[in-house]
């Protein structure tokens, strides 16, 4: 009796496993199609599901089989957008190449480029969460994610030079990331910005540097913004700073 009832259950599980890659592929096609259409759409205009389905080469019913509804689809779209943003910024944050100043300029430049090139995606992150059950919009979640990633980097470097984490890294990284995003967004939305793109990047990078420098000095560290960061770390770790 038990073996007879277990076979149908295992058969269902087997079919689900075989179909999973196919369903994953369809979900990815739908999300990527939605993002492509979103980038092409005017500000504030919602892309209809039927249009997304057509762009993906699928029937509308397939979209509803893959996603419980518009809300779930939109969350998945925001999650994909946020992942792309984070990947670009983390590439710019590579500490293995460049001075502190160069890394800051490169990272701020990455934020400016992304927001300039993807204004609709950037706006869409503010329209709701990327996680089910979350009350925080995806842009706020993204800022927290980048700040956490940067904080891990900073606390790791602090450990190398023997500085205990007193919570400064958390406040510092969140302040820099949120300030950068807000300042760049304001500039990007200004039809007649006072600063040029290069001026904005240098200005925001300088703000970030002053925050970093202030926190470092409170911990008894003197940093040279023009020296290669890897060299700075080596000097500080060996007591030569």
From TrEMBL:
Residues 1-23 are annotated as: Disordered. Residues 24-85 form the HTH tetR-type domain. Residues 1-13 have a biased composition (Low complexity). Gene3D superfamilies: Tetracycline Repressor, domain 2. The keyword S-adenosyl-L-methionine does not apply. Keywords: DNA-binding. Residues 48-67 bind DNA. One of its GO terms (molecular function) is transcription cis-regulatory region binding. InterPro entries: Homeodomain-like_sf (IPR009057), HTH-type_TetR-like_transc_reg (IPR050109), HTH_TetR (IPR001647), Tet_transcr_reg_TetR-rel_C_sf (IPR036271). This is TetR family transcriptional regulator. It comes from Nocardia mangyaensis.
């Amino acid at each position: 009796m038990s073996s007879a009832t277990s076979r149908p259950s295992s058969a269902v599980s087997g079919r689900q496993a075989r179909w999973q890659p196919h369903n994953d592929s369809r979900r990815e096609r739908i999300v990527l199609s939605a993002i492509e259409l979103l980038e092409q759409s005017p500000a504030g205009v919602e892309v209809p599901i039927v249009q997304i389905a057509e762009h993906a080469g699928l029937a509308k019913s397939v979209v509803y089989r893959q996603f419980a509804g518009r809300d779930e689809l939109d969350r998945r779209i925001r999650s994909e957008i946020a992942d792309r943003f984070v990947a670009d910024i983390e590439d710019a944050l590579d500490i293995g190449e460049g001075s502190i100043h160069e890394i800051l300029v490169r990272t701020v430049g990455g934020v400016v480029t992304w927001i300039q090139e993807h204004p609709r995606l950037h706006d869409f992150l503010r329209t709701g969460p990327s996680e089910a059950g979350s009350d925080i919009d995806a842009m706020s979640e993204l800022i927290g994610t980048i700040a956490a990633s940067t904080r891990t980097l900073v606390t790791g470097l602090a450990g190398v030079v023997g500085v205990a984490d007193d919570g400064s890294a958390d406040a510092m990284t969140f302040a820099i990331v949120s300030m950068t995003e807000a300042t760049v967004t304001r500039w990007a939305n200004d039809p007649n910005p006072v600063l040029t793109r290069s001026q904005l990047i240098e200005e925001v990078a300088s703000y970030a540097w002053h925050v970093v420098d202030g926190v470092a000095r409170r911990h008894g560290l003197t940093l040279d913004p023009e020296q290669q960061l890897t060299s700075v770390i080596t000097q500080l770790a060996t007591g030569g700073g």
